[in-house]
Write a structure and sequence with these properties.
Rossmann fold, five-stranded parallel β-sheet, alpha/beta, 9 strands, binds phosphoric acid mono(formamide)ester, four-stranded parallel β-sheet, globular, 38% helix
């Protein structure tokens, strides 16, 4: 097992090797044990300063990174674009360089534009962690998702995972396809063809348009939210119709050939892609995903901070 990542930044799962992901998981196993101790803090990132820059809304990712950083004893500064000088026309590079001049070592950034994290890594002198860039990638979400499946089944290789819903606008879908395939998981997607990207087959991913068929094939169903904020036109007649064809309710879940595991990256739109009785059922590991996010993000930050360029 290697003990160093092959990358200096976490920009996307696309750039990771299988061995990088395995190292992150092994490190996250250790941190998961740490955060379940009475004393949850370790001094690993003492003297490391991390800036959390959020140019787009977030609940889970922002809080999870912040908690991960605190558990590692890092110093933290938080930035939200909604109450910053970005509103006065300052560019991304100027904003970040001003923050870095305060001696910041790492930047965790969420941004609405695909490629923003990659762009930043080429223009500023700090380790960059992509916390979601538009409809492109959300690497730590995919890592925590795969970690949660591994925890549930003990292994990933050979498992069948279907990602259901708005694949076209989802950074979670793309990062999960890269991550799960690297780990030997069979991945298919399910949804209306208007919400499936045209390039999907080039990723080696098959499309199933019938939800029941997709669910009977899979061990794990990853339900996604319809990303209305990224849609400038209508992709289906109504949310009600979408929900009838692609929403997962308890009746459908209970009628399947086998017991499957249900996941969702959040935020959930209860009653649209998933009903409350499914989200809160014993087959759902949605809150385990959130819990694992802290340990996985601790692992990512710890490994990147220790990486010599
Ligand atoms: N899963 C996820 O990225 O959630 P947030 O948008 O709340 O961070």
């Amino acid at each position: 097992m290697k003990n160093n990542l092959s990358v200096n930044h976490l920009l996307g799962i696309k750039y990771l090797q299988k061995e990088d992901i395995e190292l992150i998981f092994q490190t996250a196993d250790h941190f998961k044990e740490v955060i379940n101790r009475p004393i949850k803090k370790v001094p690993s990132l003492r003297d490391t300063t991390i800036a959390n820059l959020f140019f787009e809304n977030s609940t889970r990712t922002k809080l999870s990174f912040e908690l991960a950083e605190k558990r590692l004893s890092a110093d933290i500064i938080n930035f939200s674009s909604s109450n910053s000088s970005v509103k006065k026309g300052e560019t991304l590079v100027d904003t970040v360089n001003n923050i870095l001049s305060m001696k910041v070592d790492m930047v965790v950034m969420r941004h609405p534009n695909p490629g923003a994290a990659q762009f930043l890594s080429q223009h500023v002198n700090a380790k960059i962690v992509n916390a979601g860039d538009g409809a492109h990638e959300h690497p730590t979400q995919a890592l925590l998702d795969a970690f949660s499946i591994r925890e549930k089944y003990g292994h990933l290789k050979g498992k069948n995972v279907v990602i259901v819903g708005d694949i076209l606008h989802s950074r979670v879908a793309l990062s999960n396809i890269f991550c799960l395939q690297k780990l030997g998981v069979n991945v298919k997607v399910c949804g209306p063809m208007t919400l499936i990207p045209k390039y999907i087959n080039s990723l080696g991913v098959e499309v199933i348009t019938n939800l029941r068929e997709a669910l009977n094939w899979c061990d794990v169903a990853m339900m996604l939210r319809i990303q209305l904020e990224r849609q400038d036109m209508k992709f289906f007649p109504s949310l009600r119709e979408y929900s009838m064809l692609y929403g997962l309710d308890k009746q459908l879940l209970d009628s399947l050939d086998k017991e499957i595991t249900v996941m969702h990256p959040g935020p959930i739109n209860r009653g649209v892609e998933i009903t409350s009785d499914v989200a809160d059922s014993k087959q759902s590991i949605i809150l385990n995903q959130v819990e694992n996010g802290v340990a996985v993000r601790m692992a990512v930050l710890y490994l990147l901070a220790g990486k010599k360029e």
